[in-house]
Known about the structure:
The complex is a heterotrimer. By secondary structure, chain A is of the alpha/beta class. Chain A has 19 helices and 16 strands. Chain A folds into two domains: about 60-180 and about 345-430, Periplasmic binding protein-like II (D-Maltodextrin-Binding Protein, domain 2, 3-Layer(aba) Sandwich); about 185-340 and about 455-520, Periplasmic binding protein-like II (D-Maltodextrin-Binding Protein, domain 2, 3-Layer(aba) Sandwich), CATH 3.40.190.10. In chain A, helix 10 (about 235-240) packs across helix 11. Chain B is mostly helical. In chain B, about 65% of the residues lie in helices and about 0% in strands. Chain B is built from 13 helices and no strands. In chain B, helix 1 (about 15-40) crosses helix 12 and helix 3 (about 65-95) packs antiparallel against helix 9. Chains in contact: A-B, A-C, B-C. At the B-C interface, helix 1, helix 3, helix 4, helix 5 and helix 6 of B face helix 1, helix 2, helix 6, helix 7 and helix 8 of C.
Amino acid sequence: MNQKPFTKLLSLSLAACLLAGCSSTSSPSSTSSSSSAPDGGQSASSSAESPSPAGDEAPLVVTMYLGCSVVEFPPDGNEIETMIEEYVGGVDFKISAYSGTVLHEMMPTLIASGDMPMVANVGGSQLSKSYMIDAMRGGEFWDVTDYINNIDNFKDINPAAISNYAIAGRIYGLPLERGISRDSVTYRYDWLQKLGLDDPKTVDELIDMMKLFTTGDPDGNGANDTYGTVTNPLGRIAVALGAPNNWRYQDGQMIKAELTEEYAKALDICRELYAMGAIHPEFAIRERADYEGDFIEGRGGIYLNTSTDITAFQNQMVQKEAVLHSSNIYTNAEGKIYTSAGRGNNGVLLFSKKAIPDQATLDKVINIFDRLADEEMCNLLALGIEGVNYQVVDGVAKMLEDDGSNGVYYTDKIYNPYTIPLAVRWPNLRTMPVELAYGAQRNLEIIEENAPYAVADDSMGLISELYNDIGAELDTLLSDAKTLYIMGEIDKNEYNNRLEQWRKQGGDDIAAEYASLYASERM
Amino acid sequence: MQAVFHKRRARFSIGDVVIYGVIGLFSLACLLPFWYVVASSLSVRPGFLISDFTLDGYRYIFSTSTLGRSLINSFYITIVGTLVKLFFTSMMAYGLSEEWVPGRRLILNMVIFTMLFSGGMIPTYFVVKGTGLMNSLWSLVIPGLISPFNLIIMKNFYQNIPSEIKESARVDGCPELTLLFRIVMPLSTATLATFGLFYAVGLWNTYMSALLYIPESNKWPIQVLLRQIVYVSSSIGDEAAVEGEVALLATNIKMAVILVATIPIVCLYPFLQKHFAKGIMVGAVKG
Amino acid sequence: MARTAAPAVKPLHKRMWKARWFYLLMFPGIVYFIIYKYVPMFGLAMAFQEYSPSAGFLGSPWVGLKHFRQFFSYGSFEKLFFNTLIISLQSLLWSFPAPILLALFLNEVRHNAYKRITQTVMYLPHFLSTVVVCSIAYQLFSVDTGILNVFLKAIGLESVNILMNEAAYRPLFVGLGVWQGTGWGTIIYLAALSNIDTQMYEAAMLEGAGRWKQMWYITIPSILPIIMTTLVLRLGDLLDVGLEKTLLLSNAANRNVSEVFDSYVYQRGVLNGKYSFSAAVGMFKSVVGLILVVTANWLSKKFTDEAIY
């Protein structure tokens, strides 16, 4: 009757479970057996200058949880990973990859349960969160201050890249160092030429460019359908005019950017731009995919983001005649130039004390990152594979043209999975001499150009308990006020009212807290 | 079969027009956005009309080994997990279905309490770990084994089976378990189909549990892959998560993944539908 | 509705022996609930501590009702409460009856092919994740490139601003919920409808009752138990509005009406890793939910003679 098929089905599925459970996942073999060469002329491949692993020791298995932007992380034992493992010697990586956001969601649970892997990277945003600070203070992660101070490859890391997550002067993770100021404004140079202009050099010229891109019909199709800028230029203009980068320490006080005159001026400029249609009406809710799409498809002429944008976008532009220029140096009316300094790092590598039991193991793990900063590895991480991505001519690497597959190969198999989450020193500065494409060259130049004018956020690295408590709602209060003002939904009076509200609800208290923290920790 | 369902009319009445119309309009409203997803997955630029046809999105997806593997994982978890969950839920539901059983109230209260109060993600993690489910696909099934909502509604269904059926069997000396399996179960196919569907969908859509409890990526179900893709190419969540040069993941790939991750489970319903359409009590009691 | 006749009152242990098979059936389920639902409840203690993942439950300090006090004294507490309640009630008002109505209609459809096709189509929205649904909403209603506005402009009308508009927020929010959940919600009612004795309809027809009368006197009373049960259980979640959807749809322009408990807790609690705070608010919601469920169940029993028990 009906009992039979039911129980039959159940027992079948239980059997299936058992069978499936029994099948083991394949374990990767990463050790290559080196054969002695009996025949003359056969060269045994060896990793040239790397320290060779101790003879009979099994390689150290290094577990890693990496947050990176790949859809599919290259499988265990792939050639890039093998190359790195062989160069470093005596290690076997076991990597689980997640998107950055997802890894951040998992972090607290991993810490609480004691299931942290040996190595994990977290983005800068997590470094000021309560749970992370508590974990660092509570000894969850190894103190690596001495390594940073003593290892050659790490000695000259920019102090600004480390100080913003120091706890009482000690450092609990290796930074993923990047340029301190990477912002840049990328724009359609071909449109400029069509309108009879040249690269803007002053803030006023930049703003005019935005306006003209809106009204001047730069794509020549007879309709006023272009946006001056696809992203909100408020922050950038404010800093260029001289406003603080978020907070500025001055005369014993911490001053919030939004409360300054320069910021107010920048706001008014943006309000004007919005009113004339230079900014997308829904700029506040757009997603990255949307405004990138706008730029790529030629609906907008300016994209304010980072120095790598030329390289990122050049190949994707729909209009093939598009020429992209990028710069962040704009002189304001007082003749000054300001750029904003970021964290100086793209996150931090954490080493769990529970997963790495002793100093000796830690030495070996840190050694991985030390080796990754050597020139040979930096060539791999920054340039790619010789013969595929670049060719060496007279000791200079010449980048090969992207034939549609080698570029993707680099991005998907090297850059996103390994370079981004693992490179402590920025590899692009430590390669062999190289001749770069325009975009890549500008990338390096912009970072250099920006550096002398970089304005730091004085609150970075300071841990305010009050901010941790109510900071998010205060931030929303401010950003809502700015958005509505730019959109023309509220007037100056109402905007100022909201600023006042921000101050009373906690802004002033946070300012006071930061001021005293700064005085005690930075002076 | 003598069942005359409803009155049969030769032509459409106004009531019919209204009914068919409302259903039709609503279905259309449900279909359009899906059409958007389909069209966008097949063209270079997203939209309702296929502007430039391309199969690149699908090609990309099927070239990754991850997709195939995660689909298999999902099928496995869904099929096996649904059967297991249905089994235990219906057992417990039947156990609770007779009002005279002592302690029934207490147990029901206990169940309802868990619907409202929960220890949270971290304590549950400890329990899952402590019961040895880490890194096993069973960690996606067992912690959610019985849904209180499903349990209660199923219990109500069993309660509403006319007692005469059960009493006459008992009087004939039929043991309880045989009664359950041979008489009650066949009568409740609609119920089983319904909750089987609910459980199946829930299992198919598992995401967070997989991330927390299964570190090995080759055991991940399809939704994890989908989430990775959606998060990678949108600015939801942590903006400064980890900056990378996202070769902007084409919308058509995103859309294609959505379809591939959704269609298998959508196809489940038509197979179960025949179980919903019967009026099965005919003659069972009176005869 | 038929109920099992209660046997003549016997001593407890005799009843328990008689029920032994039932206990057997329930046993695995009970074990499950204890292990995976009750044991983790020690985590509720988090609401009274200053929990830190690295210190764990044993190491984190106790702060009593601090978080609750903080929560209730928040300046905008009333606004949050009001927003949460309004959106929730509106959602209930529209998304609860819609599947019932639709199920009743579907039951009347005589052409099987039409029925099957429309049903399958109607389930589709349920499978889309919130992220995708909001993304589609954006594509539909965006002010410049949104399909709706492109259409309006094409026929000479002004474009409408739905996404950054305070007045449009609640309709949009509730509307998306109805769109996404109605089709799927019909399943359970259809299952109930299929269990109705067709002989009742035959009898009614013989007495000359038309379609609508049949629906009113037979169909609806037959599925009343399931309706009431579902309603009561649904009330337990009244204060749960849908965090992801809120986060995706709220912005500067509609903040006044879109800010609810969950989004506030997310900002204050989750984003900053303040687990204790979100645990405390969660407990508040659970307690309210419990009160609602118990009350609703009692009312339901009184007025319709149907209840969870």
